[in-house]
Amino acid sequence: MRAARRLPHVHETVVHMLAAAAERSPQGEALVCDEERLTYEQYLRCVAGFSHELAGLGARGKFVAVICGNSNDMAIAMFGIHAAGAIAVPINPVYSARELAFLLADCRPMAVICDSGMAARVEPLAREQGIAHLIRIGGGEGRRLTAWRDDAGARLPAELPGREDIASLQYTGGTTGSPKGAIIRHGPLSINISQREALLPTRPGNETVLCVMPLFHVFASAMCLHLTAYCRGRMVILRRYHPDLVFDALEQEKVTRLPAGPTVFIGLMSHPRMATTDFSSLACAYSGSAPLPGETLKQWQQATGAPILEGYGQSEAGPVLTYIAEGGRIVPGSVGEVVPQTEVQIVDVDSGTRVLGPGERGEIRARGPQVMAGYYNRPEETAAALRGGWLYTGDIGEFDEDGYLYIRDRKKDMAIVGGYNVYPREIDEVLYGHPDVLEAAAVGVPDAYRGEVIRAYVVARPGCRLEARDVADHCAANLARYKLPAAI
What we know:
- The protein is α/β, with parallel strands linked by helices.
- Helices cover about 30% and strands about 25% of the residues.
- It has helices at about 15-25, 40-55, 70-85, 95-105, 120-130, 185-200, 220-230, 245-250, 260-270, 295-305, 380-385, 425-430, 470-480; strands spanning about 30-35, 35-40, 65, 85-90, 110-115, 135, 165-170, 180-185, 210, 235, 255-260, 285, 310-315, 320-325, 335-340, 345, 360-365, 375, 385, 390-400, 405-410, 415, 420, 435-445, 450-460.
């Protein structure tokens, strides 16, 4: 299937995009977090100041890991890394020391940027692995990257990255139990922003996007961080998700766009403030990361007057492949039509080469300018995912006669828990790491709130007094919270 929509303006890189926004709307509000507000002029100064610091450390062309929670500093750090010609490696800040150690050892960053509150966990890992620079940001002993906001002399580096330079290493799970980094170049990253814009057009200088998702996540980068800079809008950042904070922001900041995962919408729908909140400014909401129940879509639009537009993609695909177009027909259960300059096909699962017709289910494959260059240091897995110019997604789907895509299943062994990919194989390995475990298996099971949760089955070694609590504690020490088994 091929999308026929026209592609809007494509910037050279996201750095050029931010610079263009600051040039056209210097006094337009760009970032809001707690009481701190930055204009685009100030935003660019902060990015410029930090980029020169990174460049002075020798960051150009090298990996810089970002292990931070949501804040204005996090947004500045991401753009600052790009402006310095370095490669951003966003990492989930809730990861355990074991998980962090694996990722840092895999990419070997020359610097790690972390929240000051995480330094006690990150610093020993950085020291063990010989990482040269640890940059603490935020409160406490951390630095504020917003310190450059009023430095009129702050300018972007003369040499900015180009389309062929690597922008990000976006880690995603793997069926082997080990995360792998998808290599995204600047050209593909930038063009995917415009591809998304073709289906979900924004109003330049007149959008307020509420960022409730963690900014390390590819969905938040695409639908919050980059979307707002493209349209010169405001990004209102919540440091943490709580329904009351979302309802407050929707009313007080006059939010026009709300990107979130299904779990957020389900949680908000069950809150008493749904009936009393003023949603008049909200034009639409965006859903991604996990399947959205049709009943939630229907109830949300009835309650708010604003539709939820659902899309599909993955880290390897830049990340957006399809979306329900704004103003178009909303089809419950569908993730919409294909973005411009992209082909998506359904092929047979066995050979991956026989193209299937509408109504036939098979593996989803895609090709387009936004697709990753491959996995970092994973030649075999790259060869399995990128074949004959196509990205094989591992998802099972079908098209209808109108070209709308439906996700039906997953070919690979994976659960989606609250919008996060969880691979049972990784949990199996952690379970087997307990000295009293003889056999173990983790599986994803349906859950009304999170979509899926993990259930673990464990057999104790003969003669051991192993309790479920022991296993749960062992998992908590080695896995991020969203990966923890809900039942053992």
